[in-house]
Amino acid sequence: MTSLKTKDEIEVMGTGGKMLAEVLEEVLNHASPGVSELELDQLAEKLILEKGAEPGFKKVEGYKHAICISTNDVVVHGVPTEYKLKSGDVVGIDCGIYYKGFYTDAAHTVRVKSSKLKVQSYDEIDKFLQTGEKAMWKGIRAANFGNRVGHISKAIQSIVEGQGYSVVRNLIGHGVGKSLHEDPEVPGFLDMPISRTPLLREGMTIAIEVIYNMGKSEVVYSNSDGWTIKTKDGSLSGLFERTIAIVKEVPIVLTDIA
Predict the structure, then answer these.
(1) Are 12 and 247 spatial neighbours (Cβ–Cβ below 8 Å)?
(2) Residue 207 CB contacts under 8 Å (≥ 6 apart), including other chains
């Protein structure tokens, strides 16, 4: 059942979401050559605790980290390791905060750049990442009161596949609030008539996710950690996510990274 939030509850989520956006932005800024995935995880947890919140992902049974990290061909749920980032790596940081009884969730993907490089030419990887972010914002703009989840799905799919990339089919966005994962499911693709998808109602809070690959859409569990999912063909993957609230005006982005 979809959980509808009151105005006061959305305000609490907005406070937590602002904290999350600040944490995620700082962690992304530290994603530089020579920094390990575990160092980024430790930084995220430190920042979250300093703000008086809790790492949302550590409340998931069996998961021991504040972030999931997706480096290069990792799609989602990547467990931080001792791997040290290199210039040119594509790194997605997914993070959640639990604050005053509510979760918010956000993710962003960047390209690791060396401070020694003053100018870097635009290439296919930059195009790939810009496409994912553009698809996310188009999905958010489609999340208007009275529309349906299918409008979000169609918007994301049209941008991603329009550039020749693949939307991952078995990993999707979701409702979020008192639980990290709530109804409704919010796919980044449309596989049924829009009229059959859930109606966007006032008070819904959802995490819109663009989960996509440069190559084919198939994914695999990559190792024995039980979490990390990679692209089956070894191609690069990208992840962009924001938590939003559905209101009668335009949707409110609760985790708006500057």
Answers:
(1) no
(2) 105, 106, 173, 174, 175, 176, 186, 241, 242, 243, 244
How far apart, in Å, are the Cα atoms of 63 and each of 20, 66, 165, 175?
19, 9, 30, 20
Domain boundaries, the chain: 7-253
Superfamily of domain 7-253 in CATH is Creatinase/methionine aminopeptidase superfamily (3.90.230.10)
pTM: predicted TM-score of the whole model, two decimal places:
0.96
Is the previous residue joined to 80 through a cis bond, with omega within 30 degrees of 0? no
Q: Mapped to the 3 state alphabet, what secondary structure does 58-108 carry? A: HHCCCCCCCEEEEECCEEECCCCCCCECCCCCEEEEEEEEEECCEEEEEEE
Per residue of the chain (258 residues), what is the pLDDT tens digit?
789 999 999 999 999 999 999 999 999 999 999 999 999 999 999 999 999 999 999 999 999 999 999 999 999 999 999 999 999 999 999 999 999 999 999 999 999 987 655 556 679 999 999 999 999 999 999 999 999 999 999 999 999 999 999 999 999 999 999 999 999 999 999 999 999 999 999 999 999 999 999 999 999 987 778 999 999 999 999 999 999 999 998 999 999 987
